[in-house]
């Protein structure tokens, strides 16, 4: 896990050399994380509407429905604007950098910046999801944290092996010893899918814990539904991190 943190931090400081653009990137990452995790709040609002619709007055029901669609629309619009604006940030940050990068390495630098931003955003989302889970039920939140740390430990090993493999491919290309596409692409896909499989197994374990807590009365039914949506979001984030780390390793080694 430490190797992932080290490489992400190194790429962050090398790509964004000025304090201004580092702060802007951090802001974009936080916005992306909050927008995505706000979908859990949307899910909680939706659950409240469905489970209590018979107890609500017509006026209150309409207000909740309007609020639900308005909140959902704002999150989607914010997500779109954030992803569009980051392209301009990358361009200005690269222009402000003192390093001259041309040719293919310029393309890899852009790829590295996109992968870095996606990974930072997704990891921040996981942090906010953990806080949300802990707020709903601290016992489940802590158990979830242990599982998350275990997954990241495995991801770190897969990532380290992928960097070594990708550097080998770069050296082979420089030495004019071509590597078959099936090997180059297959190595990256295999590592990414292995990470997805591991996170899927962890998802099953956490779902089992959630059912147990719900059955024993440790978590209310509305919160159980919200936590279920949260676990699905967390598992999706892990899938994105697994494949994103392998693409990051490829962009990192080719931009060196």
TrEMBL record:
The keyword Membrane is annotated on this UniProt entry: yes
TM region(s), chain numbering: 21-41, 61-81, 116-136, 142-159, 194-215
Keywords: Membrane, Transmembrane, Transmembrane helix
Tagged with keyword Transmembrane helix: yes
Protein name: Unannotated protein
Source organism of the structure: freshwater metagenome
